[in-house]
Amino acid sequence: MDKLEKPISVVMLTTSFPLFGNKTSGPFVLRLIENLPPNVKVEVLTPCVEKSIEGLESVSYRVRCFRYAPWRLQTLAHRPGGIPVAVRRRKIAWLLLPSLFLSMFWYCLCASRRAQLIHANWSVNGFVAGFAGLFTRTPVLTTLRGDDVNKSEKSSVFRFILRGCLLFCDRVVVVGENVGIRAASILKLPRSYFEVVPNGVSKEYLEIPLPHPGRVLHLVTIGSLIPRKGVDTIIRALALLPKEVEFVFTVVGDGPERRSLELLVKENGLSDNVVFSGSLEPEAVPSILALNQVFIFASRAEGRSNSLIEALAAGRAVIASRIPENEELVDNEKNGFLFDNAEELKGLLLRLSSHPEMIRLLGQKGRDSILAKNLAWESTCRRYAEIYADMIANRNR
User: Fold this and answer.
1) Torsion angle, alpha carbons of 288, 293, 294, 295, to 10
2) What are phi and psi of 275, to 5 degrees?
3) Which is the most buried residue in 82, 135, 140, 395, by most CB within 10 A?
């Protein structure tokens, strides 16, 4: 029997997952699970936010959520920005962290006895899962998704967690080349220690018709409304545009910065031009992209943005902040534009407004770049299945 046909049982440990009533939390983790080969069966282990999680069972996976506090205090996970934002918003939330990690460890320890492998997402979960795996001799794979590496560059606590993750885990995967380079630099390890397995994109994005230029620019950004996403930079750039440039800017997402961003829009007289749609279910994202011509992504720090990959696949004209992680996907002036500040972004928007034919051209080149890189979930998940099989075989030896 081929190694990719043998049954494989995996515990997927994550603090971000689209639980009942919150489908915008970690949709990429769900996409990963849904696209794994049929021989891989997954038990998702994640913190609870509600008592009921009915409807989260399928042929290939089932969900087990765990409690770490009274129901009304289960607020650390599944929110925009994750645990770091949760503890910044409510200082008392720090007191819940020991309970969260102890509960996660215990449930991971129990779940690992039912599985052949643990797959943890982000370094914090990898640290806990790796430690649990030592007790049960279960191999542990961790995926670093970028934000955890960003924090390790500035925080000794996150560096300690990252080191522990690598110490306890059998293998570590990163979602982008630059994430691996930075992680290796922080820990003074060879770059080859980390394997790159990029997130994929669903086929439905590739089937969206290319945008048609028009008199009005239809702009969109998608992401959590937290400071590092840089939505304020976009608003300031729009405020610099001449009055004759007509546009509608749709902000998809929610988070702690929403009120301040709405005030910024009002202060700059853009209330008639900017729409805050709130969070949307992942299934609605293709429709939103189809209604817009230009995707603007202003993140100041990133791992490998799923929204950016989806916008390129959807054939939208992409304008992204000039950070290394975005430069892996956007080749300036070829399949999109890169910018450093609000003034540069204004200039690029003026350029598209003056030469609307560029919108469709950039969209086609962006889609072509995704196809050339073969960034499909099927490819991503086949590689993960190969890694699972190799790790299990090595442990059995």
Assistant:
1) 20
2) -120, 125
3) 140
The count of structural domains within the chain is 2
Helix axis angle for 357-373 and 342-354, nearest 10°, is: 110
Cβ–Cβ < 8 Å for 48, 15: no
Residues in CB range of 223: below 8 A, 6 or more apart: 229, 231, 252, 253, 297, 299, 305, 307
Q: How many CB atoms lie within 10 A of CB 381?
A: 20
As a whole-number percent, the residues of the chain with pLDDT over 70 amount to 94
- The CATH number that applies at residue 300 is 3.40.50.2000
Domain range holding 50? 8-200+376-396
Identify the CA nearest to 84 among candidates 163, 21, 140, 152: 152
Please enumerate in sequence order all residues whose Cβ is within 8 A of that of 192, keeping only pairs 6 or more positions apart, or say none: none
Q: Supply the pTM of this predicted model.
A: 0.90
Q: Which residues are paired to 222 by β-bridges?
A: 252
Q: Are residues 161 and 279 in the same domain?
A: no
The rounded distance, in Å, linking the Cα atoms of 392 and 224 is 36
Tens of pLDDT along 245-280? 999 999 999 989 999 999 999 999 999 999 999 988
Say how many C-beta atoms besides its own lie within 10 A of residue 185's C-beta. 12
